[in-house]
Design a protein that fits this description.
Blueprint lengths: L5 H28 L5 E9 L5 H14 L7 E5 L15 E7 L2 H9 L1 H10 L3 E10 L2
Antiparallel strand pairs: 1-3, 1-4, 2-3
Helix pairs in contact: 2-4
Length: 137
Amino acid sequence: MKKLSRRSFLGNTTLLSFTGLLGLMPSLYRGRQEQKKVFIHHVYFWLKNPDAAADKEKLVEGLNTLKTIDVIRTAHIGVPASTNRDVIEKGYNISWMLLFDNLEEEEMYQKHPVHLKFVDNYSHLWSKVVVYDSVDI
């Protein structure tokens, strides 16, 4: 049996490791492609009384009740940022952004009793609502 030198052993080991990694590349890439796509539901609220802090607090209180709906992956309540560029819409008072795994889960959210109760209990606070739904491409 031929004895391998340390240099030869390390060289062969490195080559084998690299070859193995190349063999895994297609499956790693395929795994990235097969990641769940995200459904984003972004709602912008214009309050009837935009200067009334109590109305803003009440709407935020209502939005927080929606976070209990189990199909929501991520929820975010926000206000306009202090950024200033011509393309930025800052006329809304509160934004509500939700991430779902798919359209079906967003539709479940729309029909959920907690969501329906939210609309009944808090819709008197807003004068306008604009919704942007988007999906990964």
